[in-house]
């Protein structure tokens, strides 16, 4: 699946909002707002979301099989990488600004 540079940038911001939603209680629908998503983002997609803090792995969770729209997979995997990776303690709000996010589609 080929994603445009603009959509890639948006997906990174969306992943960060997914993590922030743990504290803000923003839903995925609220985060989407009135944004019209590219067809590629609605298509079934699989991704891994990787979090790093100061160059060190902080969490990584993903899907191997495309079973939901790509934007939903990014949202769910971003939250899982931040809070459910059994190798790490959950990300705290205060450390999120130090966390870099990458998405492999």
In short:
By secondary structure, the chain is α+β, with helices and mostly antiparallel strands.
Strand order of the largest sheet: 3-2-5
Rounded to the nearest angstrom, the radius of gyration is 13 Å
Beta-strand content estimate: 15-25%
Q: What letter string, H or E per element, gives the SSE order?
A: HHHEEEEHE
Number of helices: 4
Name the descriptors:
105 residues, alpha+beta, 3-stranded antiparallel β-sheet, two-stranded antiparallel sheet, 5 strands
Report on this model:
This protein has 105 residues and is of the alpha+beta class. It has four helices and five strands, in the order αααββββαβ. The protein has helices spanning 5-24, 28-32, 39-42, 70-83; strands spanning 44-45, 48-53, 56-62, 68-69, 99-104. It starts with a helix and ends with a strand. The mean pLDDT is 95.
Write the layout of secondary structure elements.
Layout (H helix, E strand, L loop, with lengths): L4 H20 L3 H5 L6 H4 L1 E2 L2 E6 L2 E7 L5 E2 H14 L15 E6 L1
Antiparallel strand pairs: 1-4, 2-3, 2-5
């Amino acid at each position: 699946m080929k994603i445009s540079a603009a959509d890639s940038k948006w997906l990174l911001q969306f992943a960060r909002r997914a993590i922030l939603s743990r504290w803000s209680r923003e839903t995925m629908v609220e985060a989407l707002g009135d944004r019209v998503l590219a067809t590629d983002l609605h298509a079934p997609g699989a991704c891994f979301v990787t979090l790093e803090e100061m160059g060190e792995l902080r969490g990584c969770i993903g899907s191997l099989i495309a079973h939901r729209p790509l934007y939903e997979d990014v949202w769910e995997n971003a939250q899982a990488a931040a809070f459910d990776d059994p190798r790490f303690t959950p990300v705290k709000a205060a450390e999120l600004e130090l966390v870099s996010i990458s998405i492999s589609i």
